[in-house]
Amino acid sequence: AQSVTQLDSQVPVFEEAPVELRCNYSSSVSVYLFWYVQYPNQGLQLLLKYLSGSTLVESINGFEAEFNKSQTSFHLRKPSVHISDTAEYFCAVTPVGGGSYIPTFGRGTSLIVHP
Amino acid sequence: DAGVTQSPTHLIKTRGQQVTLRCSPKSGHDTVSWYQQALGQGPQFIFQYYEEEERQRGNFPDRFSGHQFPNYSSELNVNALLLGDSALYLCASSLHPTGQGSYEQYFGPGTRLTVT
After folding, report:
1. What is the mean pLDDT of residues B83-91?
2. Cβ contact B45–A46 (<8 Å)
3. How far, in Å, CA of A94 to CA of A25, rounded?
4. Which partner for B43 in A106, B37, B52, B64 could form a disulfide, CB atoms 3.0-4.6 Å apart?
5. How much of chain B exceeds pLDDT 70, in percent?
6. Does B56 sit within 8 Å of A46, measured CB to CB?
7. CA dihedral over B62, A45, B42, A88, signed as positive or negative
8. Chain A CB within 8 Å of residue B115 CB
9. Which of the given ranges, B36-40, B67-71, B94-98, has the highest pLDDT on average?
């Protein structure tokens, strides 16, 4: 079984400041890793994913995340946030192989960007 | 290209009643998964349908059932509603469960169910 821990339930930050949203996971097998974003009253949108290759992955809107296998982490970072980044962010893991393609989600981190 | 659609957007039901939620997958997708997202929580997996059969199931009671139609759309049924069933119900679609493409799920906007 897998588990995901998002260490911060809420992260307040001022506009144009850097931010890091932390995600740690536990799994007895290899996993793929994902970050999803949920804007108010909307469903989840895939922000970025790590399946293989470079451990640093980037999204089109300036977010990046680095897979650290030894620390079992997949922290999300952005060097300069905007008001529009205010949303709920979910980290998720899916076991590789084994026939299950179902992600396990963390409880989410609410990013609140202040002007 | 239409993404995942869900209906209705909001629903209010009374304890003991039954409810049906609907989902149409993204064009080209044939697999549908349902999730329950309680307030302040991450989505919890209910079950997944592929080829009109339930393929995987999470830790939810039999009161939760589903169906997938030949056009890949899906329904989630919940019987004997409890207050604790109040949540956002999310549908996600993906490609059939083989290969790396199967790991990427596209979510709909959800149905907000309130049980009173």
Report:
1. 97
2. no
3. 11
4. B37
5. 94
6. no
7. negative
8. no
9. B67-71
